[in-house]
Amino acid sequence: MDWEALALSVRLSLWTTGVLLVVGLPVAYWLVFARWRWKFLVEAVVALPLVLPPTVLGFYLLLAFSPRGLLGAGYVDLTGRTLAFSFEGLVIASVLYSLPFAVQPFAAAFASIDRTFLEASWSLGASRGATFVRVILPLARRGILTGMVLAFAHTLGEFGVVLMVGGNLPGVTRTVSIAIYDQVQALNYDAALRTSLLLLAVSFLVLAVTYGLQRRVTAAWPLR
Amino acid sequence: MGDDHTRPTVWRWATLALVGCAIAARAVAPATPGTRTVAVAAAADLQFAMAELVAQFHARYPDIAVTATYGSSGNLYAQLSQGAPFDLFFSADAEFPARLAADGLTVPNSEVVYGIGRLVLWVPRGSPLDVQRFGMTVLTQPAARRIAIANPTHAPYGRAAEAALRAFGVYARVRAKLVFGEHIAQAAQFVQAGAADIGILALSLAMAPPMREAGAYWEIPATAYPSMQQAGVILRSARDREAAQQFRDFVSGATGQAVLARYGFTQSTE
């Protein structure tokens, strides 16, 4: 059983979810409330990771993360370390890969808020920021929770992108899905089965607890 | 967005696109009945040499179509042991074919050693690392921040690379710099993309056209790692056993060996 890999996956998922909360909420807000005729282009970009195979995203990231690449060179200048094959690199990759899984539920929740509440808040003198924090966020909390859970779960089960940019370093980039893959390849089927079962149990537990706490059943993938 | 009156148009376009795809798929499918086929599962270090072997074989036997799929030998073994529909397996070692034989999944006595793999240090063009001058000790230089090798847990080239590092007494010093490719071709991709600074790769990849131009290599002395005899074997489930045998014999025969030699596989000693 590979506890180190599981712990790494959980840590990666937590970081990814946290970053997506900070980045995803403003993006979703902008997508719902901004008026711009080319907005659909941004929507398409946000949804791209749903369509692109992880190998494509992973390959682009590998080139971008290399010390010769744009992102990688900047990171080396800043920290003296390379972004490829690092935990930070995986966080960036996971944030991009799970972006639509967080942003779409966020945006769906924002869009379903009755606009009269917002207009009431604004006309009573609350700023847009205050309205966001005190009206929109509380009303959209279910959708936000759904987005966070999906981002967490999606990162936990991530495989292709990590395989492309991770480099399989124990405790740094060897996530639980990579560890299982290795065990299968090394013909270590017993260990693979045990680790798989553990991942299955953890994933189920996370989802069950979340949906249990939400009680009223909301669609995991709300349609607009 | 999503106004009701636009829906039918969207559906019409989607249907049209699907029909178009179906027609295109039919057009490219090579299914002329009567054509004999051989499906080959090959180790990742073979991917360039195999393309040429397949082309030359096809020129001589136009009625047999050979298709090749590449992966790490360990992964291919796992798939084959679960009945993956391949006729012929070219591994990067002799152990996986022997295991398949022991599992009773191969045609008895169909194993053949087709070449011996060799290891090189490879750096991309413009690298500050001078592999020809410093050899293995170049790995301990600070400019070698990340060293790509194949995963030693299941890739034969990874195991050989680790053995070579130990033989040169640098393993302990470079261990923290190692990154692991799923198979030798991915390790090569890490270095070529610039994500790793240097790699311990297969000579067959370093000599292949896309990489020959893109970098420089230094061959690691064969005494530094256990001999990498690479064997091929015919699967018992082969649909056209005779065609599979023909391709195997072609690869281990004079023409095939000449192609493999050009891609850096030492001739087998047999």
| Contiguous runs where pLDDT drops below 50 for at least 5 residues of chain B | 26-31
Name the helix and strand elements of chain B from N-terminus to C-terminus, one letter apiece: HEHEHEHEEHEHHEHEHHEEHH
Please identify which CATH superfamily of the largest domain in chain B we are dealing with. Answer: Periplasmic binding protein-like II
Structural class of the secondary structure composition of chain A? Answer: mainly alpha
Name of the CATH class of chain A: Mainly Alpha
Helix share of residues of chain A?
A: over 70%
Annotation field: number of helices of chain A: 11
Could you give the order of the helices and strands of chain A?
HHHHHHHHHHH
Q: In angstroms, what separates the terminal alpha carbons of chain B?
A: 70 Å
Mean pLDDT of chain A: 89
CATH topology of chain A: MetI-like fold
Q: Which CATH architecture of the largest domain in chain B?
A: 3-Layer(aba) Sandwich
- What share of the residues of chain A does DSSP label as strand, in percent? under 5%
Structural class of chain B: alpha/beta
